[in-house]
Structures are given as C-alpha cells and as structure tokens.
Amino acid sequence: MTAAVSVAEPCVLSCSGLGFAVRDAQLLHDVHLAIHRGETLGLVGPNGSGKSTLLKLLAGVRSPSQGAIHLNGQGLKTLSRRTIAQTLAVVEQQADTLDTISVFEAVALGRTPWLSALSPWSAADTAIVEQALRDVDAAHLSRRTWRSLSGGERQRVHIARALAQRPQILLLDEPTNHLDIQHQLAILNVIHALPVTTVIALHDLNQALGCDRLAVLERGRLVALGTPLEVLTPERLLHTFGVHGHYLTDPFDGSQILRLRAS
Amino acid sequence: MTAMLLHTSGALVTLLIALIAGVAIGETHIDPTVVFQVLANKLWAAGYALDPIDEGIVWNYRLTRALVAAACGAGLATCGVILQSLLRNPLADPYLLGISAGASTGAVLVALLGLGAGAISMSVGAFAGAVVAFAVVVLLGRASGVPGATGQIILAGIAGSQLFNALTAFLITKSASSEQARGIMFWLLGNLSGVRWPSVWLAVPVALAGLAVCLWHRRALDAFTFGADSAASLGIAVRPVQLLLISCAALVTAVMVSIVGSIGFVGLVIPHAARLLLGTGHARLLPASALGGAVFLIAADVLSRTLIKGQVIPVGVVTALVGAPVFALILVGRRHAR
C-alpha cells in the first residue's frame, strides 16, 4: 500500500509521505496510511520499527520531518492543540507520576481540552468522568490514589482519562505491555468494545489478530497493510519478525491461532 | 462556591494577622491596636492622636518591610510551584535555574564598578544579571537537550549557577575593599533592611501578577502531571506554555532578588509542604503556596530581627536554617508515606 491517500476519502485520520528524523537517524520513511471511521487498526512490527514514533506523529505530539497528516480532512498542522485533543486521545506507554493524585483527578485531566481558564468544572464533567471509569470497569477505584494502583489498574485509568476527552479517535501504544495475562485480555476486551476509531500498537501477534486491519512496520517503513490473515503470512513473519509461523484452527470456535517458532 | 469564598476569606485573614504581627513585633514593641490606628490614620485620615515616632516606625519601616516580605515570599513560592510542575522535578526552584546567581553578579558589578550609584541602580544591575543568566541557562539547556526533555535545563541551571557564583566571588576578591565585601555578602544572603514604599509598589504588583498568570494556566499545569507528552495530548501547547510560565518565574524571581537579595528555600520548601497538605490541583496549590510563602517570609523576617538583640541576621540565613530541617523532615515523611 503505497498509493497516496487523497483527502476526500472517507477516513478520519490519514497521512501521506510521512517521515521522521532525529539528527541523522531516519526513524520513519514515507508512510502512507488512511484510517477509516470505526475501525480498529493494529500497528505491529519488531522493536524499533517505528510504531511509537508513528503514533506520536499521528497524535501531533511530534512534528513530522516530511509529509503531512490530515484529521477529518484538515491538515493537523493547521489545527490548534486543543482542537486536536477534542478529537483524538492518546494512551501512552507507561506514563507515570510521582504526584499524589487520586484516580478521579487523573481521569478528570481528560476534560482539559474542553475547559477554558474561566469555565468552571461542571456536574456534566463529573458525569463524563464517572462514565469513563465505568467504561473501563474501574468505577470502584475512583477514590484510590494513583500510587496504590497495580499496573493493570493504572492502564485502565489511562484509558479512562483518554475516554473522558470524548474523542472520535483513540491511539494506544502497547496498552497490554507488562500486564499479566488476565489483565491483558480484559484491557483488549474493553478496547474492542469502545465505540471509537482505534489505532493500537501491539507486540503480541495473536492479540493483533483481533484487529480489523493491521499495518506492519519494519525499520521505519510500512511494509504491509490489510486484514490480519492477509498480512501476517508465513513469508512476512519470517522476513519482518524473523520467526516461523503457521495457523492452527481452534477446535472450539473455528478461529485462527498463530503458532510461532524461532527461526 | 461558598467553600471557595470561605477559603479565600480565611487566607486573607491569615495574611492580615501575619502582617499585623510582623509590624507589631520588633525591638520596639508596638501594640497591635496602635498598628490599626496608624493604618486608619494613613488610609482613612481617622485622626487618632499617636506618637509620631511610633507612627513613623509602623508606616515607613515595619509595614513596608512586612509587605515586601509577604510579596517576596508569595512570589518565590509561586515560582517554585510552577517550576516543579513544569520541569517534573521536585528539586526545581527559582535558585536552581541560575537566576539568583546571575542577579548577584549583576548587582555586584554595579556596586563595585560603579555603573551608576545608589540602591536603585544595584537593583537594575541585579535584574539585568538575572535575565542574562536565565538566557544563558535556557540556551545551554536547548543546545544540549533532546526535544521534549526537561531534565537538561536543570543541569544547565546548575552549571549556570556555578559560573555566575564564581564570577561574583572573582569580582569581590579582585575589586572590593573589606568593607564593601561585607556589605555585599550581607545583601547576597538576603536582606530586607532599607526597603521603603517604592519597593512595595514594585514587589506587590509583580507577585500578584505572577500569581494571576499562573492561576490562569492552572489547568495546563495540572495537565503536566503525567509529563509533557501527556500534556500535549491533552491539548496543551507545551512549548509556548513552558516558555511563558518559566519566563514569568524568571521575571518574578529577578524582581524579588533585585529588591531583597538571595533568599533560598522558600521556593523549594513551601510548595512541597502545600502539596503534602492539599494535593496537586493547582487551583488550590498556587494560592495556598503563595499564602504560605508570604506568611513564612514575614515570620522569618521577624525572627531575623529578634533572634539576636540589637542585631539583624540576614533573612536568607533564617529561611535556610528553618527551611533545611523542615525540608529534611518532609523528605523522610514522604518516604514513610509511600
């Protein structure tokens, strides 16, 4: 998929010719991508392939060195940070704080783009924060302090904070990283049930099979884009990830399971 | 809303009591009633018959001193809050960014090389020195830093402080007579003697304006809780906000240092204490820190005048002597709280 994406396509977020360089290192080359309304797009690739960089660029947190990004048809560069944050929310990898902050306060930060210096906090804001906490099954944590939470609970609070922004698009950077298997699956269920367009960087390829489409990154280039079974072919797995893989059929529900072995 | 009114009036009453106490306590004891009567005479021409000497002490010496102490304390504490929040570093305070070191160099340059004469030009020298030092630190921080990283500016601040402190020491050793050196050392350690009404008219509006600018950006400061990238994704224009608020802190500090010299620990200890008591929401943290800083510095000034009879200790010595142990207690307490 290297064809240029036209702005007129019914996509909520797109980029064309996207590149990013830090000093001499080119971390991302010529990425073209169009994300459709309502889909869950997975970003997969080995360490250092540019998944986090691409997410940061799409979120507007970093400015691209080359190329352009469009959000709902408008150039990301022309939009204010506040306007972007009202449309698009980000769940970073491992964002942490030493501050003594309650879970409610942490989620309430999500209302920041909607509140000006003079507008007071309203009952509607409280209702949105409480709904966001319920959406990630964390309403019971509301009064706990950030520091007392486990890794899985913290990740759910981060997602709740992003949801409190009431975004159309949610970008998540490896949200299941460092979680035990129970919490990994719980978080993924929460994410797949959300009524928003989602772009999610994932390490676990079997978890990536649950996405609508996958984009495969290799050394800063987009090398494949399509449904999971289209792109995660045995050749691709060997070439990009350096592993042998084949599919098994789950005898219980008929779904595909990816079996991976070292090459 | 009623809770906010209650808190605001409580804070103002506390500040008023501290100011009255700061005026009443001293080598010559003055009854608080007399203090009120002087204020009534001066503000509303109430016409109480008072000893003109008492009236002079209250109005021209102690009240100006207490007001400048309050403004400096409030200003430095506000700067401490925003630097700690923006740089995500509990050690950040106005003195860490080389601002006070630069101010000292500027003031010493004026005092020794005689660029102009008198206290006002020394203040101007301090202000210019503060701005130059801060510019050097920011440029060094930018040149050495990865975009988005805030730790570099602290390292740059340490380097800048050392450089300007060394320059100050060099100038004093090279050019000052022993009498000059003693006077300068006294000023460098923080000194509220000799402040009069013009200083009040400078310090109070600057402290209030600094507080107002920071309060306007309270939600942006809250948004930095999980770091600068997180603030950006919450809709904060990170670079402009950082630049505006850090410049604001530099200006407020420069003005305060140019009036009273270096007073350490207020910008470090007061915000930490306020965070422990009130949490991290800046809507409450900023005014509480400003109030705490004001009351703390008024109290420190009273101590500096009364601790040794017939002698004034530099107020910076008192704040450090009280501040350092309190800070140690906070550090140990935080460890146990975890």
From TrEMBL, chain A:
Keywords of the record: ATP-binding, Nucleotide-binding, Transport
UniProt keyword annotation of Transport present: yes
Occurrences of domain ABC transporter (ranges): 13-244
Entry superkingdom: Bacteria
Pfam families to which the protein is assigned, alphabetical: ABC_tran
GO molecular function: ATP binding; ATP hydrolysis activity
Similarity-based family: Belongs to the ABC transporter superfamily.
Name of the protein in its database record: ABC transporter ATP-binding protein
Organism of provenance: Pseudomonas kielensis
